[in-house]
Structures are given as C-alpha cells and as structure tokens.
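Journal club side-thread
Mid-discussion, someone asked how the predicted structure for our own chain would compare to the paper's figures. Pasting it here so we can look after the session.
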Amino acid sequence: MNFSRILALALLITCLSALAVACAAPVAAPAETTAAEAEGSSLAGVMLRVGSIGDALPALGTQHERLDPAFIEATGVDLQTDFPPFTDYVAKVTTMCQSGSDLYDVMWLDGPWYGLFVSQGCLEDLSDYIATDSVEVALDDYPLRSLAVLGTYNETFYVIPQFAAVGMLAYRQDLFNDPAEQAAFKEQYGYDLKAPETWGEYLDIGAFFTRPDDGLWGFNHRYGNPTTLMGDLLIGFAFSRGASLFDGDWNPTFNTPEMKDALGFFTSEEFLAAQPPGKEGYFTDDVMLNAMQGKVAMYITENWAISNLMDPTRSPMAENLGWALIPGWEDPETGTIHRGTMAGAGGWAINANSQNKDAAWAYIQFMQGKSNAKILAAEQEWCYRISDCSDPDYAALYPYFPINLGQMEIMVPRPSEAWWPEAEFAFASNVGKYMAGEMTLEEALATAQAEAEQIVADAGYAGQLRNYTPAEKEQQACAELERLGVQHPDCSG
C-alpha cells in the first residue's frame, strides 16, 4: 500500500471541510489524480487500534474529535479508539509493553514514560519513516527544544510530539489597564503596573490586588496534593531559579540552595497570603475556575487549558485576559532575567509489536502533519508548530500563540528514565509532608535527596551514565535530523 497517497487524500478531504484561512494545499498532485491513485490503496478493512487519554487532556480530546472522523472518512480504516481514565491508560500501556502485545497499534505517550517503554522494546524507531516520508510530518517546523525533549530518547526518534504543555501567564487586562489602578500601584511600589517579568514583581502585583472584601486575590496555585504542588513548582519557580533535578552524572540535586529558594518562595507566608482561602486543597479545576470567574488578577496556566479560559460561554473573563511569558528570577548582579519552565505532555508512538505499522504512521501524519495543524490552530485555538505559533494572522486572533512559542523554546524536561516516577514521588511526598507541617523545609529536601539517591543507585545510573542538558539534547537532535535528511533552521552551523 502507498500510505503517503492515502494520507494525501485524507488531508485534502479534511482541508476542504476546514476554514479557508486554515488550509494550505497539502498535496502537489491534482485532486483527481490523487484520488485515482489512492483508490487502489485504501485502508478499508484495516483495523487500527489507537490508545490515548483524549478524555483527560482537553487539547488532545479536541484533536480526536476533529480529526478521527475525517481520517475514517478519507481512508475507510476501521479505527478503534480507547480513551480510558489516565491511571487506567498508564496501566494498560504498561501491561501491553511488558507482555509484548499489540493491544494498541499507535498510542499517545507522556514524556516521562519513554524510557520504560523503550527498555521493554515496545516503541518503534521512527527513523526510517522520517527519512523516507518527512514532507507532511515536517519536523523542521517544530521548535527544536520540543523535538529534542519530547521526540527523542537516547538520540533516537521514537515519538512525534503532539504538543508541548508549557506554562503561560494570564492576567486581567481590565485591572492592569485601569488608570486608577496604575496610579495607585506606582505610588505604592515605585514602578509601572504591567505584566510581571520577575517573581518579585509577581508577588508585588499579587499583594496589591489581594482584596478579600472585594472577592479578589493576586493569584492562585495548586497545593491540593504533592504531585500538583510539584507541577506548579517546576512550571514556574524551580527551573527559572536555576534549580535542576539531577546533575550531569545522574546525581539527584533536590537539596540545593536553588531548590530551597524556589520552594521556600512558593510556600512562603507572604506568597500564600496573596491567594484565596482553601488554597491548601486546590487542584487544577479549582485554580482554573477562579481565573475564569475573575477571582484572581493573574493565573499561570498550561497551554492545554487556554481554550477553556478563552471560551466566553464558560469564562466571564475571556475578553479581559492578556498573556505574557512566565516571570523569571533576576540576577542581582547583572539584572539578567533567567526563565525556564517544565516541559509537559508528549506525543504519538507506534507499538513495535503492531502488525499495522504503516497504517499507524499514516495516522500519526494525519494527526500531527503540517496541514491539519493549521486546522487545529484555526478551529481549536492551539498551536505546536513554528509556522502557526508565529503566524501574524493567527496571533491577531489568539495573542497567546507567540507566547506559547517563546515558552516552548525555554522548556526543561523531566527525566524519561524508567525509575523517574519513583524518584518524583520521593520528592513530591516529602514536599507534601513539609506543607502539612510534618517536616521543616530543610528536612523535606534532605530526605527527598537521600531517597532519590538510593533509587538512582539501585537503578545503576549514579555516576555510570550521562545525563544530558536540554542544550546537549538539542545538539543530539540536530545530528539525528541531519542523518535523516531533515534540515532544521535552528541546526545550521
């Protein structure tokens, strides 16, 4: 079967049904020729089993809703989708990989899972597909950092990134642009009221807008359980402070001055005072709802949630929201602002045990290809490609697109090693004990450090294998892209 031609027909049909502004011509051959050629190459009768968390991740759910029916219509494939709850899905993929089964032909994976599934021989090396069929998947149109940290493991492309879940700062423009508020803020703090660039400014602005009698607070974060707390810590404060999780030899770096500064700031009395009551139990839905209802002046969100924030039928604040890069830490000596945010989410992989790998690749190209990315940008209001995130027409409609690109270019990954979930739990659980008053900050970090050191040693990593920095991962990705014949604009020279 010629799956490139099937894909071309599928993309053509999808483009014809999309907004005109969203569609570039995806095929070089005339439609009639393409359809005739594809006639004898149909996927009709092929059962393709897809595993995903489409019901758990809004951006992924909308992608399935929009593109799965179009793929079926265009190809005739018997598409079997499975979207179990997140924890159930993790268990199903893990069991599938351990047993070497083909429960799914193609599946969505989160970044920290890669190492485990590669070690079990479950992920197909995508090199040959990329080298021979790279036009529509267009890896040169992804931010290099996204490809490096969400597409590769041990210098090999096993995943085509679905999108990068990075944080962005939303703020209420009706408050920030109010002349009376601007004058009062400048009188109190001595500088202009604007979207904060540093965490010091973020705290100043948060304190200024904290007005319990008016039902208004500065900001809110997730402290509901250790995992969400750690997520917010890494999305904003730790990586921008210069903290890391491991050094170059896989020695844990949980107990460092940088991590202590970041966590201490994030849990300080002054910082907590600028947040609404009940913050100790806040989860994602709680902080998002407060932002949508205008109860906070600022909200650091992950980009997958923006469609909810910008929906006027759900969010009274939709028309008031402005967007900016997440603040950073200012170097007191140079004045340089250091930024860094956690890279979340992952992408699409092919089960190495699948009997339908070519069809799985056709599905990945359809879901993640350059043509349908424009449809998702226009209709679903999120971007993951350079061309869409930087498109001035899209930016006029969705001002957060350029911010999204800027955050992707500075994102920092969590480890993808098989033992990482255990080490992450060691960190998060001890931070949770600190928040509950069962430990001091120093005790929590020291205990987390000791437990993580044991986990890494038991895995045979400490001092034995190289832990590459994001910049080094970018260099590796460039070398692999060049080998596969893909010329990325950020790899030249």
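Post-session note: The chain has two domains: 3-165+345-413+470-491, 167-342.
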